[in-house]
Amino acid sequence: MVGPLLKGLKITFSHLFKPAFTVKYPYEKIEVAPRWRGKHVLRVDEEGREKCCYCGLCEAVCPANAIRIYGEEAPLEKSDVGKIAVIYEIDYRRCIFCGYCEEACPRGAIELTTFYELAEPEREKLLQTKETLLEKR
Amino acid sequence: MVMWIAVTVVKLLIYFAILMLFVAYGTLAERKVAGHIQDRLGPYHCGPHGVLQPLADGLKLFFKEDIVASEADKFLYFLAPALAVVPPLLVLGIIPIGESITIAGKTIPLPIANINVAVLYFLGVTSLSVYAIMLGGWSGNSKYPLLGGLRSAAQFISYELVLGLSIIGVVMLVGSFNLVDIVKYQKDMWLFIKQPVAFVAYMVAAIAELNRAPFDLPEAESELVGGYHTEYSSMKFALFFLGEYANMVVSSAIATALFLGGWYAPCSFLSFIPGPVWFLLKTFALFFFMLWIRWTYPRLRYDQLMGMCWKYLIPITLFNILGTGLVVILKAGGV
Ligand code: SF4
Ligand code: SF4
Fold it and tell me: If you take atom 4 of ligand 1, which residue's CA is the nearest one?
């Protein structure tokens, strides 16, 4: 009975001097995987036109009902198919970062990036709009 | 007379400060040891390596909302946390941190009270801390604290016996209840070499009395939420916490005096380091041992806890007493 008890003490004591795995987070960060599902981005094409064509598939597929989208017809210099989303909102109070929107999108317009520091001091700020989502070129 | 009172008050203040520092940094040590045993770092960001963490914790607890359970028995509810701190502070008076020092030609004895029944006093006073836990558990008028308090009472009464029996071996060898005499007896050889069984039994019983893992059934988080202090918050909770750690410190200190040679250095060439430093070092070593135990073993089941006490520890300590008695008689050339 005493042997295993002492062995246990020995094991924990040896761990006292092993290097810790702790990442001192705000000062140190770990690389996330390239497939990490973080903040969304709305892509634009080479000519700076929004890729999104307001097909509404992302809104339909979203299991958390986080996406609200409203579109209008647009001239060709703004969209190659003549339609864009005027309102594109993702509510981060609801989003579960499943990535289905990215999977559903036929034009690769919405993608999830590796940016993960999404905390905000106020709940309202968690509502992402087109300004915050649109890719900057 | 006035001089004597002044000296005693100064000693009290110093001892109290040492105890509080020990307790504050004991909580930090606990978290650091826990962290490193689990390959983490523990508190790290308050000051370098977290040295200011105890201050931050204290401040936080002061500013927490003080919730009083609406159905609580108010008088006992407020009394219990205060009672939790009293026993360790009372024991503080008899701790023989050193023999005496000479300041300005006057020899001042280092223990606050050098009483000849110190061991009995220690046993009597520490057993008072069960009241804090029981009253705390009862007065909150809620089931988890009550269960925790009851378990604690049963555990305490059982292990109190082991604690007393383990000390008897020491007392028989030394022939005195006075802690200073007991320490002086160990000048050449520490008592834990002569009384290894008693030392182990004392440590087990002390850990059990302190409600520490692996015997922390009164506050078993997984089944009793927080145990007896579930209904407490803010500084009242902090007082329970302080009482627990202060109890750990004084238990380690008494064990140092009883078994680890008190203020004497382990070998003679090290005796240039003053006695009180040795005493504190040894106390800290035992304190560390308790932390180490806590983060190594899982919690016992309740019946295992009671079985261990009544079926193993008590018979073992009784045999130890018999054996010691035999040796004492034979040495004295008796029979
Ligand atoms: S990641 Fe999932 S939950 Fe979030 S917006 Fe896209 S589909 Fe909806
Ligand atoms: S699925 Fe893609 S193209 Fe369709 S509305 Fe959503 S983001 Fe736009």
Answer: A95
Residue among B124, B325, B38 at smallest CA distance from A19: B38
DSSP 8-state assignment for residue B215: S
Say what the alpha-carbon torsion angle B28, B33, B34, B36 is, to the nearest 10 degrees. 120
Q: How far is CA B130 from CA A43, B79, B143, in A?
A: 67, 13, 18
Pocket test for ligand 1, best of A67, A69, A88, A111 (most atoms within 8 A of CB): A67
How many C-beta atoms surround the C-beta of residue B71 within 10 A? 11
Neighbours of B73 (CB within 10 A): 15
What pLDDT tens digit does each residue of chain B (335 aa) get? 788 888 888 888 888 888 888 888 888 888 888 888 888 888 888 878 888 888 888 888 888 888 887 777 888 888 888 888 888 888 888 888 877 777 776 777 777 777 888 888 888 888 888 888 888 888 877 888 888 888 888 888 888 888 888 888 888 888 888 888 888 888 777 877 788 888 888 888 888 888 777 877 766 666 677 677 777 877 888 888 888 888 888 888 888 888 888 788 777 777 777 778 888 888 888 888 888 888 888 888 888 888 888 898 899 999 989 988 888 888 887 65
> Which amino acid is residue A20, in one-letter code?
A
Separation in Å, CA of A17 to nearest CA in chain B: 7
Q: What is the Å distance from ligand 1's center to B319 Cα?
A: 71
How far apart are alpha carbons B254 and B248 in whole angstroms? 10
Per-position DSSP letters for B132-193, written without gaps between them: HHHHHHHHTTSHHHHHHHHHHHHHHHHHHHHHHHHHHHHHHHHT---HHHHHHHTSSS-HHH
Give CA separation, A60 vs A66, A91, B298, in Å. 10, 15, 50
Q: Shortest CA distance to B259 belongs to which of B181, B163, B328, B194?
A: B194
Residues of B in contact with A22 (CB under 8 A): 35, 40-41, 44
Cβ of A95 less than 6 Å from ligand 2: no
